[in-house]
Design goal:
By secondary structure, the chain is mostly beta strands. The protein contains 5 helices and 18 strands.
């Protein structure tokens, strides 16, 4: 299944994308794509429902973040070999973890807002993992049982805030609009091999990132297992698994986003995001 949320910001309803690309209103089935509704067993039962029996939603509706009530937005740094190389950094011995504020979460077509004082707003296309079941000290082999599905993530980053303002990376990762997720959650049955997905990002039609999840240092399920050693992952948590080479900071000379730019990105099979860049008012 492909699960999405639609409607005005803060008032989204749950939906299902049918096989013809039509949005169906799933509000009679679940309250939201959050908490118990994301349990893999619950999703398996919902898969038996014919999406065609659900009300059709107009195609021009706003799409919201594909997960409701995200508890933790966990990110992984330097998890692609080519990205570590462009950053001129050694491959990490263990996954590098940091948090992104859940206040950064936005819809897949919402504007990216450059915050006041920003000079180095950057882009990062990433595979996102949506947790569906409590995970505490799970093995890599058992990790798939705890995953509701996968989605496209843009880990928008302000590099000056991230690197030059001391402390942790969260400062440069958490501005409003810096965490678009969606357009939908694809349940695992929709993804043939999560470690063989292409992912790309364009700015104003120019290809900036063009990679594959095959280049990840720690794979998706290895990350779920690793993170769960340190804290419990809960239904609705989102894990952004790192980005391939091609970020603005890694270009020569560096290139960053400016008002009027259009950012377009996709993880194969997980839907396209498109954002216009605007300055904070």
């Amino acid at each position: 299944m492909k699960l999405l949320r639609f409607g005005p910001a803060g008032h989204e309803r749950p939906g299902i994308l049918d096989s013809n690309g039509v949005i169906r209103d799933a509000g009679t089935l679940v309250e939201d794509w959050a908490e118990k509704a994301l349990d893999p067993d619950a999703l398996a039962r919902l898969a038996e429902v014919d999406p065609g029996s659900l009300p059709e939603v107009p195609s021009d509706v706003r799409l919201g973040p594909c997960v409701g009530a995200v508890g933790s937005f966990v990110c992984v740094g330097l998890n692609y070999r080519d990205h570590a190389a462009e950053a001129k950094l050694a491959l990490p011995k263990e996954p590098i973890l940091f948090m992104k504020s859940t206040g950064a979460i936005a819809g897949p077509n919402d504007p990216i807002v450059i915050p006041q004082g920003s000079t180095k707003t950057d882009w990062e296309v990433e595979l996102g993992i949506v947790i569906g079941r409590w995970a505490r000290r799970v093995s890599e082999a058992d990790a798939p049982r705890h995953v509701a599905g996968f989605c496209t993530v843009n880990d928008v980053s302000e590099r000056d805030f991230q690197i030059n303002h001391a402390g942790q990376w969260v400062k440069g990762k958490s501005a409003d609009s810096f965490g678009p997720i969606g357009p939908f959650i694809a349940t695992p049955d929709e993804v043939a091999d999560v470690q063989a997905l292409s992912l790309w990002l364009d700015v104003n039609g120019e290809r900036m990132q063009d990679g594959s999840t095959a280049d990840m240092i720690a794979g998706a399920y290895a990350l779920v297992s690793y993170i769960s050693r340190f804290f419990t992952l809960r239904p609705g948590d989102v894990v952004a698994t790192g980005t391939p080479a091609g970020v603005g900071m890694g270009r020569n000379p560096p290139r960053y986003l400016a008002p009027g730019d259009v950012v377009r990105l996709e993880v194969e099979g997980l839907g396209i995001q498109e954002h216009r860049v605007v300055a904070e008012g």
